[in-house]
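To whoever is covering the structure queue this week,

Two jobs came back overnight. Logging them here so there's a record in the thread.

Job A:
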Amino acid sequence: MKIPSADTPLYNHPLPVIEQWLRDHGCQQKKEPLNCWDVSRSQWQAELSLEVEVLSVRYFQAGDNGDDVVRSFPYSLSREDVEAAIFSGP
């Protein structure tokens, strides 16, 4: 399956391509629920969730007071923009 160009909105990517893209960035799919993925970096840990209308990210204990930081990205954003926003960290 050919991956669309990086400037293509996520809603134009087939689900298997999005899943491979997440794997390529070191994300690991959870067994339950299958729409959730874990990602760890040296400075932060997060959970990604492929929701109906958005891709949500919860960065654990990333707030100033140790709270989780949650961000949501609509599928109308390009893969390139979502990638830059998510993987740069909280």
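Job B:
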Amino acid sequence: MSFEHIYKPRLHRIAGCNASTLAVTVDGRAVEARAGDTLLTVLLNHDGWVRDSEFGDGKRSGFCVMGACQDCWVTLSDGRRLRACTTLAVSGMAIVRKQGTHV
């Protein structure tokens, strides 16, 4: 049996395929999201990571997915910090993960 036959994705998008699309940016790049997506879903679908670890051990992708840990905090271009796993995407949001990408 090949890997493709036994692999099951760990993240399942709740928003349906027919959900309206939202325009958000991640580090200054336009990203399409769906109505009902959390910021965690947007980031993981975009490029597979949420933020860099402040302890220097690489990229982070969330941990508890229910707002109890501190692993998915993201910053918006206006300086607000939000938990990616419990915050719904809103059209026009600008998520900033890298310095110098405030737009």
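Note for Job B: The first strand starts at residue 21 and ends at 26.

Please reply-all if you pick these up so we don't duplicate work.
Q.
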